[in-house]
Design goal:
Blueprint lengths: L6 E5 L7 H11 L6 E3 L11 H14 L3 E4 L1 H6 L1 H13 L3 E5 L10 H6 L2 E3 L3 H13 L14 E2 L2 E2 L2
Parallel strand pairs: 1-2, 1-3, 3-4, 4-5
Antiparallel strand pairs: 6-7
């Protein structure tokens, strides 16, 4: 993944930019040297054609993606539509990443957990790493480094 070859990301939506939808891309923007393209287009609402036109538009958007973020808050409102998007992702062998409901007040629906390859927290590094794994099969093998004030590699400091 580089600036010339960004990861193509789709986030589940119902043709509106929900708080969680916007939050996904805010978190990804905060990751240094992580390049992605948002291929989901909530503004492309079909003018006519009903439910079939909506499904066709979602398929067109998802065809461009390498990995999908599944947002549980949308599932609570429009479970049939989210199931459809997960079906499209599975049919096209796209990796799916479920992000826990923001704020920790609710649990992710079991169907989402079972169908997604990863179930992660709202954490910029974790989100970027999950995308790398699901979209490109890259394993970051990063270690979390903790800094303890008053200590360095040789022990306590004065």
């Amino acid at each position: 993944m580089s600036e010339s070859n960004p990861i193509r990301v789709f986030a589940t939506h119902a043709f509106e930019e929900s708080d969680d939808y916007l939050r996904v891309f805010e978190f990804l923007e905060s990751v240094d040297r992580f390049y992605y393209v948002n291929v989901s287009k909530p503004e492309n609402i079909p003018e006519a054609g009903g439910l079939q036109a909506i499904k066709d538009e979602l398929i067109e958007q998802m065809k461009q993606a390498e990995a999908i973020f599944v947002l549980p808050a949308l599932y609570e409102q429009k479970s049939d539509l989210v199931r459809f998007m997960m079906d499209v992702a599975e049919a096209n062998s796209m990796g799916m990443v479920a992000v826990r409901p923001f704020g920790g007040m609710a649990e992710t629906p079991e169907e989402i957990v079972e169908r997604c390859q990863e179930h992660i927290e709202w954490n910029d590094r974790e989100m970027a790493d999950a995308l790398r794994r699901q979209a490109r099969g890259e394993d970051t093998a990063r270690w979390e480094v903790l800094d303890f004030p008053g200590f360095d590699a040789d022990g306590p400091t004065d």
